[in-house]
Backbone:
């Protein structure tokens, strides 16, 4: 037990020291690869991605890998998001293999913006079309020590812009702790710590993020419908996020990324352990202020939908996901 305690303490210091490293002007330039900051599944997006401490299955591979070993069952998740205003399409697929103490996960995450017109001169028709592609292949390991868990994710990253492409590697690390007979949970994660090769002449800087979050079952009660009791459970999730290498005041990529500390918070109402209804709020400089979602349990399947309205004429994004527990 002493060895485990020392390991957890050392792991915590690694996260905190990495977060507190001083940055010079070069390291504070604007980042890219912002698809890594969008919640992988519709479940996450409907609560404004405030899930650093919430159990959402394979999504934790990208949000906080420590959560994987606190799950009750193994699961597989697929998700798809479309944003018509920019022709952006995000896809996610993940698998979690749950053990008594050791848990493993693998996932794919991609983002595609297709059919972008290319012109070498002002002409009525474009010379052709190109695409912007982002891709991540990730593998995770998580270990729990009673109510405490630690985890790490390794990621291979790829980006393509027109005819230029680059690859890189990054890691996510995290800790999670169950409290009050699992009615509350705390989590901390350090995400997207790594580097990319040069794309043309400059390497894209990853959006490294330190997140501290909580998941609390706030209220549980029953209401009557005819002669039956319908149990209701109200939960609240909240993350405080600190971008570690975004240039202060930059508006580049502001639709999905922010340069100062910001809060992602969500509330979820579970009805009879069958239906979930949720809403989320993002603070700071963001075009995606409010988010909404719903979920439905059918046997071992969990269907989710998220409605994501963007401000300032950027339209509405929609996301659907399916999770299977086994």
Residues:
């Amino acid at each position: 037990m002493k060895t485990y305690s020392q390991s957890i303490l050392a792991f915590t210091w690694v996260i905190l020291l990495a977060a507190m490293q001083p940055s010079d002007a070069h390291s504070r330039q604007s980042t890219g690869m912002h698809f890594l900051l969008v919640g992988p599944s519709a479940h996450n997006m409907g609560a404004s991605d405030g899930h650093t401490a919430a159990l959402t299955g394979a999504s934790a591979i990208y949000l906080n890998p420590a959560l994987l070993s606190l799950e009750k069952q193994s699961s597989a998740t697929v998700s798809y998001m479309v944003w018509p205003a920019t022709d952006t399409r995000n896809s996610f697929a993940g698998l979690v293999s749950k053990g008594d103490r050791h848990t493993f996960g693998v996932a794919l995450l991609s983002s595609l913006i297709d059919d972008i017109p290319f012109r070498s001169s002002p002409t009525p028709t474009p010379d052709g079309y190109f695409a912007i592609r982002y891709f991540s292949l990730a593998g995770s390991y998580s270990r729990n020590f009673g109510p405490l868990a630690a985890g790490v994710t390794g990621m291979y990253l790829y980006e393509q812009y027109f005819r230029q492409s680059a690859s890189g590697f990054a890691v996510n690390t995290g800790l999670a702790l169950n409290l009050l007979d699992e009615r509350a949970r705390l989590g901390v994660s350090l995400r997207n710590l790594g580097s990319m090769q040069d794309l043309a002449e400059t390497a894209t800087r990853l959006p490294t993020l330190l997140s501290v979050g909580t998941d609390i079952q706030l209220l549980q009660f029953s209401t009557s419908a005819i002669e039956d009791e319908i149990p209701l459970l109200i939960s609240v999730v909240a993350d405080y996020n600190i971008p570690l290498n975004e240039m202060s005041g930059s508006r580049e990529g502001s639709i999905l990324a922010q340069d100062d500390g910001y809060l992602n918070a969500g509330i979820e109402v579970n009805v009879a352990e069958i239906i979930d209804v949720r809403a989320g709020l993002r603070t700071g400089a963001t075009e995606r202020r409010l988010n909404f979602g719903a979920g439905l349990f059918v046997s071992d399947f969990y269907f989710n939908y998220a409605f994501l309205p963007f401000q300032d004429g950027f339209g509405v994004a929609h996301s659907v996901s399916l999770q299977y527990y086994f």
